[in-house]
Amino acid sequence: MILESTNMTEANVHSAENQISKQDSLVVAHHQSTQCYFCPETEELVFIADSEAGEFENHWREMMTRVNQFHLAKEAYSSALEAYGTTTSTRTLSSVETEAYTQKVTATEAKLEKEREALRNKLGAFSQEGMSYDDVVELLPIMGQGAKKKNGVKPARYAYVRKGYFSKSQQGRKLHTVSLKGNDKKGGTGSIYGKNKNGQRRIDTEKLKQQLTDANWPKIKLELKDIVQWSGLDFDPESLNHDFALWEWAEAWNKSLVGKAALGANVDVSGGAQFMRFVSNVGASAEFDPSKGNVALKGEAKATLTVASGMVNLTAYVPDRLGWSLSYTNAKGNTFDMGVLRLYLSPELNGFIGASVQVEGQLQVVTTGDKQLLAGQPSSRLPRFQERRTKGKTFHNQMAAEDEGLNLSGEAFAGVRAEGSLKGGVQWLKPTAPTDLNSPVAGLLKSSGEFTDFCTIGGSIGGMLGAGAGGKLHCTFINGKFCFHVAASLCWGAGAKGGFICEVGTNTIVEFGAWLVYQLYRLDYGFFDVVNKSAFGVYSWYCVLQMESVGGDLYESYGRLKGDVEYVADKFNEFIKVLVSENKDDFDASRRRNKLSASINANPDRLLHHTPEAKGILLYLLTRHGVWDHLDWGNRGKNWIPDIYGERKEAVSLVLKSIQTRAEWRKVLCRMTANGTSLAQADNELEIMEQQERHLVSFLQEGINQDKELWKAKSDLIAIYDRLKETVAWGYALAMNDTKYFDLNRVPNPHYPQRCIFSPCESQSSRWA
After folding, report:
1. 241-273: pLDDT as tens digits
2. Quick one: which H or E segment has residue 561?
């Protein structure tokens, strides 16, 4: 039988890395159609009637072609997107150039959606009721010549046919199966799959060899007479026990699992694993063992498939590497720009659910027990590139029904295999500052921003029940951690179901603070109701407590002890009680205030991540002084001429220098209280501010020459206030207000977010899928 098919042979496929064929045209490859296959799942040899072999092979080659074309389209789209991002981040484009790059992305995007739909038509719909697709049957074509070329064509190593087609062919006696399992034939040695000494499932190559040797070939030939005219075969079936195609397959799969983690360390021939290998484009490779059993796939997400286990390790950015602008409309109807965000995901995918992530254009978040998983969402797609770049995403924070998502614990999902872990995080495009803030060229930046994690997605959501409840993007404080609910619709667009539960860990608490304070800055220090009011209070208290305990990790202790809001409040109140105490028995309050001032002086940059409430509390504590402070020789300084409260004055000055705008100045001074609550009423903010300024001057003038100190204190406060910004310079990093960088950047950054490091690029990451 002569077959006309898409050429997906070794000539077009870089099998070492399983790159997909970049040949779009059809090439006629003349060869004898395969009539013998091995089915790994059932451990059967499958013989195809000579009259049907061509049609059968055409079926699986068409299946392979559809997947291959889909992956080609993913690669083309990723390359166009990278070209757009790389170019716009390094130079300003003319409108004509911008349009040309944009058109390239939109054209490849349209091509990708076309190929995705063609693949869906071939696969059948993804059932959300059963979380599965129609099954495929995984086959290993056997030419009878092992890995040798036949008529100049190296045989494909994998073939996938729809199970319905396979069953129909079997019922029509167009194919015949012969079991190699020991319990299916006399004298057999059992299944070729067994467990090694570590309890991991492997292929027993000795059993495979024995089964082929012990097969009753005369009887098999007799059974096949009714189906195939044996004169049509160009090899003797008995030669299969010498064929090294199956040995290569078995050895390659076993070798690929060496050193793998528990979940991906087992040979898996289940229906879900077969389907995952199929949609991961394994069929496009001419080798069993690409890159020693790992297939790397290219596109807008990095993915590596361990072929034998059907496990994919994915790294993806949502909606893409460039992120998108997120805007929030509050309860009063006011909308403000939160900057550019993107979701970073690193899940382990397997089974039909994992395969759906590879295939579908839009994803959803599902839960099973205390685990979060990704799944494809059929009949949906990401917002188009043009929409993402020009409109971004605007949202109201009230949760919708779709934000609840699916739970796989119901009876409907009883047969669904939902394993693997989900990791990742939410990243914001953080404005970057130069290394030297006082350089004459401090305003010239190589990059205006870089994506940075401020909260992470964990594999387990146990202990975070109720996190972010009620909001699409909402932060609460639960069991010692700041937790977010992030609706999937904020990541993949309208219609995406479910939401992620994220947490702020010890490795992201600093960046969480940077993100939170920058959002306050964007609002010119107005109310930010994305963060729960009590959670906001906890963060302000934490800033003050951590400033005094720089050497320790208070946030880690909150999480370890699973402290709630009341726990942190109690710790804060105990701290305040000690620092404002005027106990005559000791100098502890004075010494603790000195310790606080020394910590501020040693770590001034930490103040840039403090809320106005935290700064107000610090000013309140630093300016407390009485009889015992005067008697404490530690307040006299280290110079020859004593300067009372020298370190405290320096700390007060640093707190004031960390203030960015005049609006923040008013907020901070009005919150110079023990707990950060405002002294101002609706109409007397300026009056309270002036009163607190006088209090600061009174403290700063403490010293030997009070007249001189009074003049200096007043002039210092006036100088700081005068250089504060009247409006927000959006897109520039926060900096101390006495730096040249601060002074040079007084209007919004025209290059934010365009001139940013979006990464990763092809040069930074070896393979993408």
Report:
1. 666 678 888 988 998 888 776 777 899 999 999
2. helix 554-561
Do 431 and 452 meet the contact criterion of CB atoms below 8 Å apart?
no
- CB-CB contact of 686 with 612 (8 Å): no
Which of 305, 319, 317, 315 shows the shortest CA–CA distance to 351? 305
Q: Which SS3 state, helix, strand or coil, does residue 688 take?
A: helix
Tokens standing for 738?
């006495």
Residue 752: partners with Cβ closer than 8 Å, 6 or more residues away: 429, 431, 448, 449, 730, 731, 732
Angle at 75 between CA 69 and CA 77, to 5 degrees: 105
Nearest to 70 by CA among 111, 23, 127, 104: 111
Q: What is the DSSP letter of 757?
A: B
Asked whether the beta carbons of 70 and 119 are under 8 A apart, the reply is yes
The residues with which 477 forms a beta bridge, in sequence order, are 482
Summarize pLDDT for 10-67 with one digit per residue, the tens. 333 332 233 334 444 434 444 556 778 999 999 998 888 777 888 999 999 999 999 9
Structure tokens given for 309: 């286990």
Distance CA 518, CA 749 (A): 14
Average pLDDT across the chain, whole number? 81
Instruction: Judge residue 257's burial from the number of C-beta atoms within 10 Å of its C-beta, 0-12 exposed, 13-18 middle, 19 or more buried.
Output: buried
Alpha-carbon distances, residue 658 vs 129, 308, 315, 654, 680 (angstroms): 55, 56, 38, 6, 22
Residue 105 has pLDDT above 90, yes or no: yes
pLDDT single digits (tens) 200-227: 999 998 888 888 777 777 776 676 665 5
User: Which residues are 2's β-sheet partners?
Assistant: 32
- Could you tell me how many residues make up the chain? 769
| Helix residue spans in 360-496 (DSSP H) | 385-390, 489-492
518-598-688 Cα angle (round to 5): 55
598 and 647 Cβ atoms separated by less than 8 Å: yes
Under a CB-based contact definition with an 8 Å cutoff, are residues 63 and 137 in contact? no
Q: State the residue for tokens 């993804």.
A: 126
Tell me the one-letter amino acid at 497.
K
* Count helices and strands in the chain by DSSP H and E runs: 22, 21
| Crossing angle (nearest 10°) for helices 685-700 and 662-670 | 80
Cβ-contact 567, 561 below 8 angstroms: yes
Q: Output b/e per residue, 552-587; b: 16+ Cβ within 10 A.
A: eebbeebbeeebebebbbebbeebbeebebeeeeeb
| Per-residue pLDDT tens digits for 375-406 | 888 877 888 888 887 777 887 766 666 666 67
Q: What is the C-alpha separation between 75 and 24, in angstroms, rounded?
A: 14
DSSP class of residue 605 equals G
Can you read off the two tokens belonging to residue 62? 């068409």
Cβ neighbours of 726 (radius 10 Å): 9
Any alpha helices (H) in 172-291, and if so which ranges?
205-214, 217-224, 245-256, 271-279
Among 486, 450, 512, 467, CA closest to 328: 486
Q: What is the mean pLDDT of residues 587-591?
A: 79
Is pLDDT above 70 for 295? no
- Is the CB of residue 12 less than 8 Å from the CB of residue 286? no
Angle (CA) 586 589 591, round 5°: 90
> Could you tell me which of 370, 354, 271 has the C-alpha nearest to residue 316?
354
The torsion defined by the Cα of 368, 371, 372 and 377, in degrees rounded to 10, comes to -20
End-to-end CA distance of the chain: 36
Q: Does 378 sit behind a cis peptide bond, omega within 30 degrees of 0 on the bond before it?
A: no
Q: What is the DSSP letter of 154?
A: P
CA 311, chain centre distance (Å) = 18
Alpha carbon 665 to its chain centroid, in Å, reads: 37
